[in-house]
Design brief:
With 477 residues, this protein is α+β, with helices and mostly antiparallel strands. The chain folds into two domains: 257 residues, Zn peptidases (Aminopeptidase), CATH 3.40.630; 211 residues, Alpha-Beta Plaits (2-Layer Sandwich), CATH 3.30.70. It has eleven helices and 23 strands. The strands form six sheets. A six-stranded mixed sheet has the order 1-2-6-3-7-21. Strands 16-17-18-9-19 form a five-stranded antiparallel sheet, with helices on one face.
Length: 477
């Protein structure tokens, strides 16, 4: 049945499922359940719940919930034509890895759904009663978990299938909160001499990645690189900023960014020299990690308007002050990032610039303090700074009976001990606990790298092992 996991995943890859647009995948899951004679319904949020009875001999065993999320992060390389609302994900095999052509793969968390569906239709697998809970909008708002109603779930044990590390069991995660800032302005007509030019500065080729899992890996943030250079040249030149755009999703480290500026001819050579110096310095800072980093300067068409000079200066300085990256490591769990923030995106809108950041911490106090630090920095330029509702962390329970079962299943199969960890990324488990405080939970998953970026890749042998492990857990339960 291992191949069955990949067969199901291949079908899921044909179904568009961007965050907040899960109509098609929700309907596909319901149709899939109907085709297999499985009890299934969707709630008002479009979460899908399936129920499968115990196999003979397991009727008196305590049931279990298998949980994954439907939506995927939709990121693509700048030179790739792909509409995530209509186009299937094009996958290919590279050695032992499953990848997508220029886009995110959606293994996060399509492979979790695939393993759950394979398990409940495996005719040879013995198991207790199983509920499958497939939630919407995990990546951008945890909306499905938040809107899950009390009383829907019947069982007291839950296995979350949204982790990305082979042979590891997660029993805790960080909480998070998003910040949205806006700087409104009236565009200014360009005042320039006929000899002035417009220059496009761009950053591309960065690794990007998950703003939780990858935040401590020394990767560059494209938004920061653009802002750092502008902060260098603004005080000493008469440039005007026409636009600045970078990043995309709140939970992805920005891989690409660009700015368009106008430059008096008198400063053209100075800008070029400063840019070359800056490129050399950034290669010295990030070159060992960012092997494909590209920082480019080129002339472009003269823009129709610019951001007023004072507003542009305040914006660039505020973005320079806005923190990004790892803030603190855990004092309780070695190697775990405790607190971080992601300068996720800078977007030009009509009449305003919009900035998105995302703060994470396993400590509620640290999360809210960092939210305040980000707010104070952005308020230097922005007239509107708001915060999302946030989501709670999941406190580790080292005395979990389910944890012992999951550990034993792994040891029985592979004759080695799995690692038991907490994760800096956000999982839906904390929200489930708010409504079902008795839940005993763990999170497992196959090895993935580069999630939330077009470099996402899923280990085929690890997926096979993880599915085998899941089956062993269900048989042991």
């Amino acid at each position: 049945m291992k191949n069955r996991v990949f067969d199901i995943f291949a079908e899921i890859c044909k179904v568009p499922r961007p965050s907040k647009h899960e109509e098609q995948i929700s309907r596909w899951l319901q149709e899939w359940a109907a085709a297999h004679g499985i009890e299934c319904f969707a709630d008002e949020a479009m979460n899908v719940i399936m129920r499968v009875p115990a196999t003979p001999g397991y009727e008196d065993h305590e049931g279990v919930i298998l949980q994954a999320h439907m939506d995927m992060v939709c990121e693509k390389n700048g030179d790739v034509e792909h509409d995530f609302m209509t186009d299937p994900i094009e996958t290919y095999i590279d050695g032992e890895w499953l990848k997508a052509k220029g886009t995110t793969l959606g293994g996060d968390d399509g492979i979790g759904i695939s393993m759950a569906l394979a398990a409940i239709t495996d005719p040879e697998l013995q198991h207790p009663a199983i509920e499958c809970l497939f939630t919407v909008d995990e990546e951008t708002g945890l909306t499905g978990a938040m809107k899950l109603q009390d009383g829907v779930l019947r069982h007291k044990k839950l296995i979350n299938l949204d982790s990305e590390d082979d042979g590891q069991i997660f029993i805790g995660c960080a909480g998070g909160i998003d910040t949205l800032a806006k700087m409104h302005y009236e565009p200014s007509a360009i005042s320039h001499e006929p000899s002035d030019i417009a220059i496009r500065l761009s950053v591309s080729g960065l690794l990007g990645g998950h703003s939780g899992d990858d935040i401590n890996k020394g990767r560059a943030n494209a938004n920061q690189l653009i802002v750092w250079f502008l902060a260098r040249i603004l005080p000493q030149t008469d440039i005007q900023v026409a636009s600045i755009n970078g990043g995309n999703l709140r939970n992805a480290i920005a891989r690409e960014a660009e700015a368009v500026i106008t430059v008096p001819m008198a400063y053209k050579e100075q800008i070029r020299i400063e840019w070359n110096r800056f490129v050399a310095q950034m290669e010295g800072v990030f070159g060992e990690v960012e092997k494909d980093m590209r920082l480019e300067l080129e002339t472009t068409d003269m823009p129709e308007s610019v951001i007023p000079a004072e507003k542009a200066y305040r914006l660039i300085m505020a973005l320079c002050e806005c923190p990004h990256g790892m803030i603190a490591m855990s004092q309780d769990i070695p190697g775990l990032v405790e607190t971080s923030t992601n300068l996720a995106s800078i977007k030009m809108k009509e009449g305003y610039v919009e900035i998105n950041t995302s703060q994470r911490s396993s400590k509620e106090e640290a999360k809210h303090h960092l939210k305040w630090v980000v707010e104070q920095a952005l308020a230097m330029a922005c007239d509107e700074v708001t915060h999302g509702d946030g989501y709670p962390g999941w406190a580790p329970n080292t005395n979990s009976p389910l944890l012992e079962v999951v550990k034993k299943a792994y040891t029985d199969l592979y004759k080695s001990e799995p690692k038991v960890l907490a994760i800096h990324a956000g999982l839906e488990c904390g929200l489930f606990l708010e409504k079902y405080p008795y839940l005993d939970m763990v999170s497992i998953g196959p090895q993935m790298y580069g999630v939330h970026s077009p470099q996402e890749r899923l280990s085929i042998p690890s997926t096979e092992r993880c599915y085998e492990w899941l089956c062993q857990i269900l048989k042991t339960l």
